[in-house]
Amino acid sequence: MAYETADEVIQEILPFAGANGTCSVSVGQDYLNKCRRLLWNKVKNFAPIMDYFSVCCAEGCFYLPSAYKQIHLAWIGRSPVSIGDEWYMSIPKIGMPNKSSSCHEKLMQVGGFHVTFQNYDDAPYQVGIQAEHPHDAGKEIKFFGVDEYGTSKSETLVIGMPPSRVLSTYFYQSVNAVIKPITIGRIRLYGVDNQAGQFLLQAVYQPYDKNPQFRKYAITGNRGSSVSVYAKKAYHEITGMDELIEFPTEAIKFATMALVAQRDRDAQAYANNVTLAIGECNAETADNETPTASPLRFFNASHPENLIQY
């Protein structure tokens, strides 16, 4: 599909968002993001908001990068992995691997959310933050943790000019919450033990993360060193006029009319326009092959080193 920029799409939806096309660009941008969120949640397996990637495992676990929302399919090597959850796996004799099935391993989401994908527990450490983009220098990151004495503590750090790393004043045992503004580049969080000369990368936060969190997954059965997954991307709002819109413009138009109908409390018009918007998205990818949980058939794609590393 041909992608259009936010500016181009906003110009197309202004007559639908405002009265006789009198809607301002700022309101049009607000409608655009609301339309994108609506379609993001309604459209299933829409290729532009899905992605393949490879993630490494440690001790049978891995954390889903915050750029992704949900895993739909997974493979270890060329073998498919069955996806379950804690409730499903907790029932005796239910959801256990079946030797007669092609899925001999299981991928299970561990409850709760996490703000780091690595733990640093050799000794109390200082928290270090590092930006990837120079225009993020001067912005503030606030984090909450448990200090070396077991007391809950929080600090606010001012991002320095990359590649400099700004360190916390106090020493911590763990970090359990992070608040960051929208940034231009990614932000890295380190556990730093200067005395031992150790610098451990604990997390990488995306530019649009405000309260970054990671989902944790455990693998039962074969504990491979890496897992290939097909996952849905996390929604984020468009802020620049030159950013590309992943949904067809016609779908955004119908979604805009749906939101206007919702504002006017016209339930029937809302439902009709949502259906038309989803139909436009499905029409764009009607000829695309839908992935299945069968073994990956393309040899080149079955190797994690040939996939995008995150």
Description:
With 310 residues, this protein is an alpha+beta fold. The protein folds into 3 domains: 78 residues, no CATH class; 100 residues, no CATH class; 80 residues, no CATH class. 22% of the residues lie in helices and 32% in strands. The chain has 5 helices and 17 strands. The strands form 5 sheets. It has a 4-stranded antiparallel β-sheet with strand order 2-16-4-5, with no helix packed on it. Strands 3-15-7-6 form a 4-stranded mixed β-sheet. A 4-stranded antiparallel β-sheet has the order 11-8-13-14, with no helix packed on it. Strand 6, helix 3 and strand 7 form a beta-alpha-beta unit. Helix 4 runs antiparallel to helix 5. It is globular and about 65 Å long. The two termini are 25 Å apart.
Task: Briefly summarize what is shown.
This protein is of the alpha+beta class and 310 residues long.
Number of domains: 3
Strand-pairing-aware structural class: alpha+beta
Which strand-content bin applies to the residues? 25-35%
The biggest sheet amounts to:
4 strands, antiparallel
What is the helix/strand order? EHHEEEEEHEEEEEEEEEEEHH
Shape descriptor reads globular
Number of separate helices: 5
Can you list the strand order of the major beta sheet? 2-16-4-5
For the residues shown, what is the average pLDDT?
A: 83
Helix amount? 10-25%
Low-confidence region ranges? 93-103, 298-302, 306-310
Cα(first) to Cα(last) distance is: 25 Å
> How many strand units?
17
Which radius of gyration do the C-alpha atoms yield?
22 Å
